[in-house]
Prior knowledge:
By secondary structure, this protein is an alpha+beta fold. Helices cover 17% and strands 35% of the residues.
Amino acid sequence: MSAASSLRPTVLPLLIAAIAMVAGCKEKSKHELPKPGVPKPVTEQSVPATAAAPAPSASASADPPAPAAPKLVNVAGMSAGAFVVNKPRDDQRWLSLINEVPDSVGITANGDGYDAVIALAAPATIERVRFVRAAEISAAKHAQVQVSEQGQDGPWQTVYDADLTAIGSSQRDSRGVSDEAALPTPARARWVRVNFTGGGGGTISVRQFEALAQPAEGAPAERSVSGVYRLLRGFSGASYVAIRQDGATVRGCFGDGEEKGGRVTFRRVAGEFAGGAEPGGYLRYARGSGKDAWRGVMSFSPDGARTAVLEFPGATGGSGTMAQSVNGIGWRVGDYRDACPGDAKATDPVDDALEAEKRVTLYGVNFDLDADTLRPESRPALDAVVKAARAHPDWHLAIEGHTDSSGGDAHNQDLSQRRAESVRRYLAAAGVAGDHLGAQGFGASRPVAPNDNPAGRAQNRRVEVARQ
């Protein structure tokens, strides 16, 4: 018998025992809580990636539904953080080209050509392009698409250059004509230049342009959008909007004021707003209440100097349309510097909402793509709930997860449940009594905006907290 064979009966039990000890240590570490009063940092290591309990409709032994196959997304859309950078500061016509509003009126320009340089929120590998035109005599007849990874002035690589579908006289006044084509080779881009030519009657028109790519592997890094912006349209005709960002949580006010020395003093505050900065820099927000409530998204130029607004009435709801949507543009005029009157003395809006309305939407809670892993910039929003819960130890809070309608009912239900559980775990780890916390996912069953466009879907992806 060899020396190795003689050791086998002794080594095997010891090896099994060692493995068991290591597993036990890992399990203990996984459920370890931070010291009382010190919220545990949100990291991939500190927030488990799977829920502690399955969705109510699933059995305890059932595996979570498999994620839907990756779907191409429009990275050149305003709700993806895209921004047209080669137009004058006060030109807002280009917004209709990339706002993705169904049946957009699009743009009409003098001459027989129109071009736009679109800055993407993050580099993307474009696989397909799509052009939508109104069926009219001025519709563009040819399109060229170029990409660059280096800058808005190129160098440029041409990835598409072709005539668009001819529009016959019998098609005039129809809803529109859509052309979509796969690129011969997927093209990496940070800037996209699209050029339309061949209009008729002395003008050229086009409704929408889309650059379709796989969702990014990792979300773009967070960047700050704090500041005061001069507005030409949007926010109910207000002249200025002041934005204060903390992590991914955004709060502020809008109204009329005076600008002097890079500082704005508000003469009249028309209202407050709350929002969340998505990875990549665009933000979604809600402002006003009741019949005066609005929801929207804002995107920003890469240098943060300019902004674009797309908003729609809050009463639109999940079954409505974007027919009353408003486009607007603006530019940064100064730092925030406590621009909103009374800001320094303001009470906690999360506490106020739970006290008065028993419900609050947690803008600024971000997750990794199609996952329940909380991103670090979510901490300020979550810690605001911790603060409110500690101030009212008798409160019982329900954490609700919501998704948009993409991905299928089973997948959305599971994802929303796991995300709600992730938030519940964070609050419990930060010291909120676990028996005062519940978590439930609702999938896409409770939309607050239309799911037929990206701006609406961004509003539907949310976490809410309800006081029971």
